[in-house]
């Protein structure tokens, strides 16, 4: 094989039970499985069979970078953690993307990835210093918050090291515990922080002094100027007297001080907001800096749900901006000569919920506590908190003794509750430590999950009250995310329908790496026949393909896909590796990854059509902001068409032998046939 | 021996890369400056290949500090080089102290002589050669770190400050509810 650039050639297998370290050549997996999540899927398929639970030592933490990581390609800082997820309901294989600086440093140390297996006998962390890999006692860092863990590891090993860490939530096996790499940069979905905890693994710290070589430096530099259309504006400290967020605008007496920040190594964008000198519950000074992305602001205020503008999802050639540019506030003004402007900028305001009034300090403290404990904000801010607010208003929480009056709008109550959960204090601490999906089932889903909140009013329908359950569960143990109801509920049906297919065929909330994108022509075409036409399933598949590539190549969901630059992922891959692949060949590779992922779900967890369709129906039986509910008969047709386009059997939802074989997965087909899981 | 160019006359340091204060533009800690520096010089990235040094503020994310060679007018690194004018060289016209890697013997005397902490001269342990900022003296677009800095928080010491970002399309502090609702969320 010709030299592969981009990769550094080795994956370290670290057995925490025996302390053994061995090396697996990356070339066992690439270029066929590209990198990132693609390689994770292949390793998991090969090494973890059915019957393993998330907290068993036999579960593995598979961490992979992509070939672009550390090359200078802007979004290569994205990396992936995969394994059996304790947050998924039921437990199953899933993944979580993470930015930060760890992945590039790991490659500088000489490793494209890590396979961590077994369980350490004592509290430990992994220290990687170029060629030397050690498992060290974690006595000095166990129990620390995530920030303090990072800083302590820098104190021990030097300011230049990079770490993945867990907080107390991971140590105490909270199923929604994250793995954090910096302030608000975390593998949020999946609960992999608890998998770390189950293995007595507090952190992985790395120093790498080596190099990463892309195949084509000129191409890398061109991509830096092209990807996400960076504007090269300055980033001065901005001081305002009001907080502005999605649907939010209220005065803050002491002022709001912020800049923009960057969340992964080598990125050419600065999407997240960094709020400076905000109230802290964990710092001696009482002040801290806090990054805010999407869910964070909703801890500050939730009068209205998140709004949506079609231009976030649908593009024309004249108005085509990546999410990062929109989030950074640096987006250029709309091109008003575009005839599609009325459609693109038809604001869908969020439904009115009146859950809590604005409180900048409370919101920042809750955000900080989630980051410091190492909690997934999606489980806390947009599921637990609204559930408490809605459940209380509907009188269904009267029997719950949480030690204080239930009031998610109270900073003191939320501090009390989070501490109770993170340290598993008492019955309710233990209950909510299992995550919302399990807690609500334990309490009784009919009452505690399905009770209708009477306070949802649609601005799209002139204030009409619409049903919504007090629990925003979407599927697989995750909360709603651009599903047309629940948090971020105002998205249009032309967007939430393909998102529904993406959710159905996944094992978690897929939106963090699959924020839906398409052209305005798609939106128009989909409207003609939402359920029977092919526009919706084709759009779902296109986005799933792009999502596979994003987390394999790797790149960032906030930059790609660009629907008017379909060869972007191939260009990134070639610039990094030197391997020229056509757009079609990249699509085939992505299909390979998706079908291998599906084979894992089928072999290990018995995934069928019936299972996944039933999983997504409940939330979608409630109206969206326009009053639409899912047409279940139409959805059957939609699923049929989606499966047919994917080459999957419409009865079982299983890929056919022909599908596997054309993707180079004959061995997978053979194994599934042997256990009766190929369609007849 | 006077080596000053007109641009740096009567200064202790020559023309060099400076980091602006956050009131002008806050560094976002992306490392692009280090990365493109290594790419344009070596075709690779990595800590030992950078000629500009970013110390990230891991948790608070605000005080990222960028260290650069100041191209000292008295150039102690040049004076310490046993192969001066072959390995460590002076571009007198541009006021640049630079290394010609072909003749560097990897003795590290230049690094020891650098008066700054942290040192502004790096060491490529693979090639056993010192590497330092040369202000991309042969590069048509000038220093790559400046060209690719996404927030223009670094620049050349003799250049004017970058302009503030343009005003947003709509006025800030707007009371109109619909305006704020256009702020997207991911």
Task: Explain this structure.
The complex is a heterodimer of chains A (680) and B (186). Chain A folds into 3 domains: 10-207, Aldehyde ferredoxin oxidoreductase, N-terminal domain (Aldehyde Ferredoxin Oxidoreductase,  A, domain 1, 4-Layer Sandwich); 231-267 and 270-308 and 348-491, Aldehyde Ferredoxin Oxidoreductase Protein, subunit A, domain 2, CATH 1.10.569; 493-674, Orthogonal Bundle (Aldehyde Ferredoxin Oxidoreductase Protein, subunit A, domain 3). Chain A is 36% helix and 18% strand. Chain A is built from 25 helices and 24 strands. The two termini of chain A are 38 Å apart. Chain B has 186 residues and is of the alpha+beta class. Chain B has one domain: 2-Layer Sandwich (Alpha-Beta Plaits), CATH 3.30.70.20. Chain B has helices at 32-42, 76-80, 109-113, 144-148, 177-180; strands spanning 17-19, 52-55, 65-68, 88-91, 96-99, 121-124, 129-132, 154-156. The longest helix of chain B has 11 residues, at 32-42. Chains A and B meet through helix 3, helix 6, strand 13, strand 14 and strand 16 of A and helix 1 and helix 5 of B.
């Amino acid at each position: 094989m010709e030299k592969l650039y981009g990769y550094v050639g080795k994956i370290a297998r670290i057995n925490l039970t025996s302390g053994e370290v061995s090396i697996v050549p990356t070339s066992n997996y690439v270029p066929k499985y590209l990198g990132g999540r693609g390689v994770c899927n292949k390793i998991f398929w090969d090494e973890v069979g059915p019957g393993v639970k998330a907290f068993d030592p036999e579960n593995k933490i598979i961490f992979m970078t992509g070939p672009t990581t550390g090359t200078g390609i802007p979004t290569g800082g994205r990396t992936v953690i995969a394994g059996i997820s304790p947050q998924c309901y039921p437990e199953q294989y899933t993944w979580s993307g993470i930015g930060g600086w760890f992945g590039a440093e790991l490659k500088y140390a000489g490793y494209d990835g890590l396979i961590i297996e077994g369980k350490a006998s004592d509290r430990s962390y992994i220290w990687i210093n170029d060629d030397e890999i050690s498992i060290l006692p974690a006595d000095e860092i166990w129990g620390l918050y995530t920030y303090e863990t990072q800083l302590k590891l820098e104190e021990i090993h030097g300011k230049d090291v990079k770490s993945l860490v867990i907080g107390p939530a991971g140590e105490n096996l909270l199923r929604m515990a994250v793995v954090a790499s910096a302030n608000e940069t975390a593998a949020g979905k999946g609960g992999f922080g608890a998998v770390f905890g189950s293995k007595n693994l507090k952190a992985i710290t790395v120093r790498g002094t080596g190099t990463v070589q892309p195949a084509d430096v000129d191409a890398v530099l061109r991509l830096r100027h092209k990807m996400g259309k960076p504007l090269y504006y300055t980033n001065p400290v901005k001081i305002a007297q009001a907080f502005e967020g999605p649907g939010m605008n209220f005065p803050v007496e002491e002022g709001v001080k912020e800049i923009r920040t960057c969340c992964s190594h080598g990125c050419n964008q600065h999407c997240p907001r960094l709020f400076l000198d905000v109230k802290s519950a964990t710092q001696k000074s009482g002040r801290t800096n806090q990054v805010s992305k999407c869910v964070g602001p909703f801890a500050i205020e939730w009068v209205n749900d998140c709004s949506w503008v079609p231009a976030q999802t649908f593009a024309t050639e004249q108005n085509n901006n990546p999410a990062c540019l929109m989030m950074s506030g640096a987006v250029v003004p709309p091109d008003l000569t575009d005839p599609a402007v009325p459609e693109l900028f038809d604001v869908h305001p969020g439904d009115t919920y009146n859950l809590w009034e604005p409180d900048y300090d409370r919101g920042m403290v809750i955000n900080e506590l989630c980051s410091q404990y190492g909690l997934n904000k999606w489980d806390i801010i947009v599921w637990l908190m609204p559930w408490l607010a809605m459940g209380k208003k509907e009188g269904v929480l009267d029997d719950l003794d949480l030690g204080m009056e239930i009031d998610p709008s109270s900073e003191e109550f939320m501090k009390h509750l989070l501490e109770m959960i993170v340290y598993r204090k008492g019955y309710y601490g233990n209950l909510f430590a299992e995550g919302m999906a399990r807690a609500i089932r334990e309490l009784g889903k009919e009452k505690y999950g399905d009770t209708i909140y009477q306070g949802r009013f649609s601005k799209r329908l002139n204030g009409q009250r619409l049903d919504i359950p007090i629990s925003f569960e979407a599927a697989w143990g995750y909360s709603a995310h651009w599903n047309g109801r629940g948090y971020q509920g105002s998205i249009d049906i032309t967007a939430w329908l393909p998102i529904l297919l993406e959710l159905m065929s996944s094992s978690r909330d897929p939106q963090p790496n699959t924020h839906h994108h398409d052209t305005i022509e798609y939106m128009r075409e989909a409207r003609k026949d939402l359920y029977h036409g092919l526009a919706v399933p084709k759009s779902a598949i296109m986005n799933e393909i792009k999502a596979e590539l994003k987390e394999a190549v790797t790149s960032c969901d906030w930059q790609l896909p660009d629907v008017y630059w379909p060869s972007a992922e191939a260009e990134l891959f070639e610039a990094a590796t030197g391997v020229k692949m056509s757009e079609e060949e990249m699509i085939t590779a992505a299909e390979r990854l998706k079908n291998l992922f599906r084979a894992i779900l089928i072999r290990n967890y018995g995934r069928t059509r019936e299972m996944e369709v039933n999983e997504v129906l409940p939330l979608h039986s409630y109206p969206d902001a326009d009053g639409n509910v899912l047409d279940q008969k139409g959805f059957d047709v939609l699923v049929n068409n989606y499966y047919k386009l994917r080459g999957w059997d419409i009865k079982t939802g299983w890929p056919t032998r022909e599908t596997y074989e054309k993707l180079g997965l004959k061995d997978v087909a053979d194994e599934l046939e042997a256990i009766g899981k190929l369609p007849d | 021996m006077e080596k000053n160019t007109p641009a740096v006359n009567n200064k202790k340091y020559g023309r060099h890369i400076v980091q602006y204060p956050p009131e002008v533009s806050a560094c976002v800690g992306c490392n692009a400056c280090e990365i493109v520096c290594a790419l344009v010089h070596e075709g690779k990235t990595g800590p030992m290949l950078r000629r500009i040094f970013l110390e990230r503020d891991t948790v608070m994310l605000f005080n990222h500090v960028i260290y650069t060679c100041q191209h000292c007018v008295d150039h102690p690194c040049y004076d310490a080089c046993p192969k001066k004018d072959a390995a460590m060289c002076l571009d007198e016209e541009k006021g640049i102290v630079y290394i010609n890697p072909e003749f560097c013997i990897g003795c590290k005397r230049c690094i020891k002589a650098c008066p700054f902490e942290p040192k502004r001269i790096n060491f490529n342990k693979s090639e056993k050669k010192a590497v330092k900022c040369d202000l991309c003296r042969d590069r048509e677009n000038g220093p790559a770190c400046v060209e690719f800095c996404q927030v223009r928080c670094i620049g050349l010491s003799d250049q004017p400050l970058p302009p503030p970002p343009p005003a947003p399309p709509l006025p800030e502090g707007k009371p109109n509810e619909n305006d704020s609702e256009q702020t997207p969320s991911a």
